[in-house]
Structure formats: structure tokens, C-alpha cells
Amino acid sequence: MNSVPLCLFSAEEPIKSGSSSEQSHKSLTEILVEMKVISRKRMRKAAKLGAMLQSDLARILLAHQWITEEQLIKALSIQWSAAIIDLDSETPDPRLIDRFGASVCLEHGVLPIRQIGNSILVATSRPEDFAAFCERLPQRTRPCIMALATDSGIQAAVLSVRRTALARRAERMVPDQLSCRKLNANAFRRIALAFGIVLVILATISPALAFLPLFAWALLTLILCTGLKILAAISEIRGWGTVASADEPGQPGSAPPVISLLVPLFQEDDIASRLVNRLGRLTYPKSLLDVLLIVEEDDSRTRAALSGEKLPPWVRVIIVPPGPIRTKPRALNYALNFCKGSIIGVYDAEDAPDADQLLKVVRHFDRCGPKVACLQGILDYYNPDHNWLTRCFTVEYATWFRVILPGIARLGLVVPLGGTTLFFRKSILQALGGWDAHNVTEDADLGLRLARYGYKTQLIPTVTHEEPNARALPWVRQRSRWLKGYSITWAVHMRNPRRLWRDLGPWRFLGVQIMILGSVSQYQLAPVLWSFWAMMFGFWHPLTHVMSHSATIILGSLFLLSEVVNIVVGIWSVRSPTHRHLAKWVPTMHLYFPLGAIASYKALWEVIFRPFYWDKTKHGMIDTFDKLIAASTGVKFASTAAASSSQGADAAPDGLSDQGPVRPQGTFLHRLLARLPRRFRPAPKSQIALTAGRTSVELEPRLEGL
Fold first, then answer.
1. Least packed by Cβ within 10 Å: which of 22, 458, 485, 503?
2. What is the value of pTM for the model shown?
3. What structural domains and CATH numbers belong to the chain?
4. Mind listing the pLDDT tens digit for each residue in 355-373?
């Protein structure tokens, strides 16, 4: 325990020079060197990096493990003339934590300890921000007496008394009216039962009466979905409109921000180490990187795998307490309390992002206006040629992320987010209540909520490679979860159609109906449309005597037009050198989509009987990314522990040498292109500049011929 006096910070009285709250005349650098916890050479290196990144010196020192938290707090106690609180012997008052808010304590690194007269003793790990923090507190929590404690100690103390409360809060962050947790499963059952009874009655009276409404709805949604696909493709191909035309210009040249990356893991014992290695390929400065591996408390497999890895200092493990539900969005909400960055990114366990992805994210956020709350990257697969299913899956993803979504964004429609390679402004994400913990497609739901609150989502040209499902059954399970989530999301937001119309406007409202309700309907009613091929070949059909010959011809032409559109758009989406070999497989997509119909019936059953069930997708089954990189570059991935130990104590931080910034290795795409014949290769060129007074991104990509 330090013997120096406690500091009194009052929100009513500014800190006066010469008081006990005044900073020491010595800098933190001088104090640490005098304490002999760090050499002057290493301190100069840290100061240089801090100036280049415009980053806090303490963050850089801790990120590179050049000092410990305990050494930092001791130095800060000297600098600020403040006492150090031993949190092992001090038990915080839970009522005071509730008065401040447990999430607020974690976010700002503060911990109210006890009441002392009219004041509250508060431990902090960030004394330089304490006065400003006190100014924002309600009157009843002032004045505050400052003491010091480590950030990890504060976190552990808050969790010791309010861990369960934070977990419960993670389940209910989204307001009731915008969450699916209040959906009545019994109502779904009653609606399904009533619909089934009516259908049986109509079929008993006349098969045509039962078939005709289903056919009419299937035909209408086919026309609308095909029309939207055509508009989106034309918009993207021709570059009609602009995604950010209504945005105010951003502020380029700002200091690079801290980025927190959330990676939920569940039963990922065989992929945890590979994940850390892949994230380690990111060229963003590691001192500004905050990776949170989110693990369920009862997931002993993943916890055991992580405990066997020597994780780098920029990676933390967040343990999620058990609760009535166990979903990805609940885990994300819980981990959001621990994020240090102003930008929040989301990855899946099997993801392999482009090395310069975060640099592009920062640059885009710097240049766009404040209404752009979310950036969506492109998802692709690193093993598309494993079998026919993976080829079709890759074509489908290319169509969605390279044509349809950009086109939808250009048309000004709501962008249904993917579950990974998402980046948010933390302040906006918190204001919206994070993710709906009960929704199995929390990404699509969040995209719709962002639009309802007037925020925008933009797509950025950066790729994250994933592992596709290579077997039919896992594919059906995954697709059924997506379709179930789409159905539930539509039901939630259509509780009050008038309000949704008012929030979105008629154009975006119609787009939501087509993209969500229309897509689900197409999967559900696909057999209804397929049945008409029997009519065309002369077999009996319920509508044989209802439809004229000319109507049958028109119907067949419409079907053919839809198939032509799908094939043309699919071929266009795989036009790049890395995907063009898949063009010959695009016509076979007609045989791929029936799996979606099977998945839709599984989804329908779960909507009725298990609306909140999360059907887990298993990863690591055909993970070939590391082998592919090794084959193309000749460099093998080392284990996390080996990579960490191989870095010398005096290694240049964040990839920087004393001579200046170094060029990063090429992205995954560049490495693949290097394997092409020379005449087909582009000439990649990128430069990363980390200079004081400028953003961390200065990219000059040159991909000729792409």
C-alpha cells in the first residue's frame, strides 16, 4: 500500500495547482526510468511509436509487455500523488457500483469502493481521465476521492459482485418492442395450425382452391425478387447512385483509433490457435489492437485449448457466465462491456481477413460522415474447390457480397448484415442496445435497426476468407438457422407496420418485404413453382384445367427469364481471376437451391417449436487456409506460443523499425494472384505510413487488369 495521501476530485471545484491532486512535475517517462523498470533505449522507442501513432504511452508500454500493470500504477501514484488501493483486501460496495453502473465502471476503468463522509472513494486505472469522468457523474455521486488500481484488478472486482447482473443485462439490451424475446411461440403454433386446417379444407373442396393462393404468392415473390436482383445488379455494374452522397465529409488525418475485435468461440478446440495466427497477420499496429476471444463458461473444450496457448498481449479471453439462453449475440453483448476501442469489429472463429483490412476500415470511417455507423466487408471462401457444394456456396457468396449487397446499398435500401467482417462505431452500437440476444440472425436484425434509426451501412472492398460447409447436412442446418432468423426478424419489425413504414419510408419498406419475406417465401414455396414443369410436360397438375395454354407459355417464359438472370448475375460475380474458373458451375446452381427448400422446412418447424434454438455450425472440417498460404509464400505458420517467444525483447514494435515503416506482405488475394501466369498478374503496390498527425492508413492500391 502506498503511503501518499488520497486525492480529492470534486466535480464542483476545479483541480487547483499546488493541491494534492496536481500532477508531479516529472513525466511518466522520467518516473519509470528512475524506477529502473525500463531502459532509456526502450523508452525512447516507445515514445517514438507513441508520437507516430498519437497513442497513449502507457498503452504502448503495456501492449508490448515492457512494463507490468503493477509497475505502471506505482509510477502513476508517484506522478499523481495518489494512493494505491489493494483490491484483494478491499471489498467494493455493490450499491455504489450499481449507482455508477457496472458497465460504466468497466468502460471507464473506475471502481467505487466505499462512502467516506459525503464523498465516494473511487479507484481508477486512468487518472488523467478521472476529473472529466467525475464531471459527467450525477450530482448524488459527487465529490469523488481518487485512488489507483490496475485495470485488470478493477475488472475482476466489478465481476466479483456484478458478473451475473452484466450477463442478465446482455440478454435484454434491445428494447422489448424491437426484440424477439417477447414473441409468443404459441401464437406461431396457432397460426400454423389455422393455416394448415384452412389448406386441408380447401384441398378437400377442390385441389385448385388450395393450390391457387400458394401459386399466386410464389409467383408474385418470384417476380419481385427477380426484379430486385436485376435492379441491384444493374446498379452495381453501372455504378448508379452513390452510397455516401448524403453524408457529410469526415475528418481525415485523425489519430488512428483503438479497434476492438470480438470473436465468439464455442467448441472450437481445433481452431483457436489458427485463429490467433490469422489475426496476427493484420498489419494494424498491435498496440492499437484489442482482440477479445469470447468463450462460454461451460465450454471446457475451447477454454482448455486457449489455456494451452501463449496468447499475445493484444488478445484477451472473456468468459461469458451461463444463463437461460446461450447465443452468439448474448456473448457479443456481454463482451461489449470490456471493449477498449472506439471501433468494434466482429469475426467468426474460422475467419482469415486480408492483412490490410483494419487499415481500410479506419480510412473509410475517417472519410465518411457520422451517419455511417457500420461497414460490411466481403466474405469469400479459401477452399472453394473442395467439392461441388463448396463451389456452389462460393458462387452464392460472390453473388451476394460482390453484386447484390453493393447494388442494394447503391439503391438506398436496407443492407441485411452478414455475421462477420462487420465494423461499428462503438458509441452508436451501444446507443442501439447492441445485438438482440434472442435472435439467431442478430446481424440482419441489427442492420434493420440501424436503418430505422437513420444510420447507414456501407460496403468496403476488403475480403475475409471463411470455411464453407462441404456436406449437405451441415449446410441445411446452417441455412435453416439463417432462414429462421430472417422469419423472426420480419415478424419482430412487422409488429407495427405503420411505424416501420414511417421509419424507413415506402422505398426501403418495400425492399425489406422483398428481401426478407420474399426470400423466405421463395424457399418455402419452391416446390409449388417446380410443380409447373410437370404441367409443361403433360403430367396432371391441380391447375391443369384452370390455366390456358398461353398462360402456361408465359409462365414458362418467366421461369426461364428468372434462371437466365441468376446465371448471368452469377457469372458476372465470379469474373475475377481467382473465381472465374467457377463460371462453368453457375448453371448447376439450379440443383443447389433445392437444399434451401429443405432447410426452410426445418426453419419453419423451429420457428413454431424452438424459436431461440441456436444450431451451431462446426468449423475446422476442411480448413486449408494455412496450407494454401504456406504453399504460395513458402512461409509456415508457427504456433502462437512460438511466434510470441520468437520476438526478441528489443524487436521493433508494431512492425516498425528505426528506419521507418515497413511494407506489409501482400494480401491473400495478392498471394493467390502470384501463382497465376505472369501475363495475368496485376502489379500490386501498397504503402502503409504511420506518421504523426496523420491517420494510420495511406493506401495506394494498384491492381491493373482486375
1. 22
2. 0.83
3. 7-171 (3.30.300.160), 177-207+386-419+470-616 (no CATH), 252-368+458-465+634-706 (3.90.550)
4. 999 999 999 999 988 999 9
